Amino acid sequence: MEDATPPFEALLALNAEAVEAMLRRLLDTRPREGEIVRPARLMAAMRHGVLNGGKRLRPFLLVESAHLFDAGGEAALRVAAALECVHCYSLVHDDLPAMDNDDLRRGQPTVHRAFDEATAVLAGDSLLTYAFDIIASEETELPATTKLDLVARLARAAGAGGMAGGQALDLAAEREPPGEEGIVELQAMKTGALIRFACEAGAVIGGANGSEHERLSAFGAAVGLAFQLADDLLDLTASIEVMGKATGKDAAAGKATLAGLHGEDWARRQLSGLVAQAEELLEPFGEKAAVLRQTARFVAERER
C-alpha cells in the first residue's frame, strides 16, 4: 500500500497555513471580552510583524511533538499561535535601531520602517502579552494545570533566563566577544529557548511521562543549536536576495559566531553531529517521530 503521508515540505506548508489562519482570527480588530478597543494602527503593525510568511517552524515542532502522544487539535494550534506571537514580538524588537537596526524582515520592511519606532515597540509588547492571554483563554480547551505549566514554561523561555537574556548577551558580545562556551550559552538562550519550549509544550499537551519529556526537551535543545549554527553559516554564505534580510551583519558588528570561529567545514560537521544526536533522542518513539527526524535534518540543511 502506498504511503499517503504528504512530503515533509508539504506538511510544513500545511501547518504554516493552519497557524496563519489561526493568527488572522486572533489578530482581528474586534475587542475581546475585557478589552475596550483595539487601535487600528497598533493592530495593523502587529499583523505586519506576524502575518508576513515564514515557515512557522516553532509551531510545527510544537504540533508534531504533541502528535507523538496522539494529542493536538485546535488547543495545540492555539498554543502554537501563542508561541509564534512571542517569536514575532522578539523579531519586531530585534529589528529596532536600538538592537540590530534592520530594514528588512522576510523580504518586507521591518515594523519600525513600515510604521514607526514607538508603534513597533508597542506592537511587540502587545504580541508578547497576548501570547499568555491566548494560552489562558477558555477557548484553549486544555486542563487548567496544563495551561499553568505552559504559561510558566513559556515565560521562562522568553524572559531574562531565556530569549530576552540571550539578546542582552548578544548586545554585550558586540563590546566584548565571548569565547566558545559563551557563544553556545548565548545561542541556547536567544534562539534555542523557544525551540526547546516548542518541543516541551507538545510533551505537556500530550501528557508525556518524565523520560519522554526529558527526551523531547533535549531534542529541542539540539535542534535549537542546529538552527542557530545553520543561521550563522547562512549569514556567512547566503545573499540578501536569498535570505530576505541583511546578511554578513554579525561579522560587520564584530560578533563572534561558531561558524565564524571555526569555518564552514567545521560548522557542517557539527550540524551532522547535532542531527545524529536529535535522531538518537527520538528512537524510543519509533515511526511516530519520523516527521520530527525530518525536521531536524531540514533545520540543519536549510538554504534560507
TrEMBL record:
It comes from the Bacteria. Its cofactor is Mg(2+). Keywords: Isoprene biosynthesis, Magnesium, Metal-binding, Transferase. NCBIfam families: FPPsyn. This is Polyprenyl synthetase family protein. The keyword Transferase applies. PROSITE patterns: POLYPRENYL_SYNTHASE_1, POLYPRENYL_SYNTHASE_2. Pfam families: polyprenyl_synt. Belongs to the FPP/GGPP synthase family.
